[in-house]
Amino acid sequence: MQSDGRVKKALVTGGSRGIGAATCRALARDGWLVYINYNESADKAHDLAREIGGRAVWADVSDEEAVKAMFDAVGDVDLLVSNAGIAHPGQIQDLTEKDWHRLFQVNTDGAFYSCRAVVPGMVRRKSGNIIIVTSVCGVWGSSCEAAYSATKGALIAFTKSLFKELGPSGIRVNAIAPGVIDTDMISCFSAEEKAAMAADTPLGRLGTAEDVAELATFLASDRSGFITGQIIGCDGGFQL
User: Is 1 part of a structural domain of the chain?
Assistant: First the structure.
């Protein structure tokens, strides 16, 4: 609960699976009413909502009007976790213009549309918290992930600018940069390739969605009340 007795409201984009679902569960455990955004995974989102006492809400985050409609329906939120994202591995010469633009539409435009929707209410209340999920690829770049890395690098610059703009209104903005996390996003890799990535991680294992979720809940809490503008790695020391 908030100090004024209101239930804390959070919305997690891409919340039906992977890092998003783990974050929804962790936030619910900490007392948040969680709105679980989904696009295609309706069954998973509604099952998760029943599990944690949350609400499943549809929007394709790459669609400006869909995002606006979602937040109009949800109302003001105290926390936005901008997590929705897609990947498209491949060499640059094989990447089509459509592929390039789709990655930016989901990964970068989606964060912009979501942040733009929540900020007016946060500014009005002089309080709010935004967590943007980027990637170690945005920090270091990654071979055969040029477009994905570019979208995640853009989110880092976005975070570094937005926290300065919103800080005077009492709004914190931070980003999490996960390393190699064992979710559906890396399902295209073989067991041998995953083992190699684990071996390249100083802690000797792949990350879990729960590893990232625990960091997100810390950043969502008053325990991190003087932390803003940070790009925090959750990567086991992995560097590309």
Answer: no
Domain membership flag for residue 238: no
The pTM score is: 0.94
Q: Which token pair is 205? A: 């294992």
Q: What string of pLDDT tens digits covers the 240 residues of the chain?
A: 655 567 899 999 999 999 999 999 999 999 999 999 999 999 999 999 999 999 999 999 999 999 999 999 999 999 999 999 999 888 999 999 999 999 999 999 999 999 999 999 999 999 999 999 999 999 998 888 899 999 999 999 999 999 999 999 999 999 999 998 888 777 777 888 888 888 989 999 999 999 999 999 999 999 999 999 999 999 999 886
Residue 3 belongs to a domain = no
The whole-angstrom separation of Cα 89 and Cα 95 is 9
Sequence-distant (≥ 6) Cβ neighbours of residue 146 within 8 angstroms? 92, 95
What is the domain extent for residue 141? 9-233
User: Is residue 4 included in any domain, yes or no?
Assistant: no
Amino acid at site 225: G
Q: Choose the catalytic residue: 35, 38, 113, 148.
A: 148
Alpha-carbon torsion angle 219, 224, 227, 229, nearest 10: 10
Token pair recorded at residue 42: 């309706």
> In angstroms, rounded to a whole number, what is the distance separating the alpha carbons of residues 69 and 19?
24
Instruction: State the number of CA atoms in the 13 A half-sphere of 43 facing the CB.
Output: 0
Task: Let me know if 124 is exposed, middle or buried by CB neighbors in 10 A (0-12, 13-18, 19+).
Answer: exposed
Angstrom distance (rounded) from CA 169 to CA 125: 8
Residue 35 is a catalytic residue: no
CATH number of the domain to which 177 belongs: 3.40.50.720
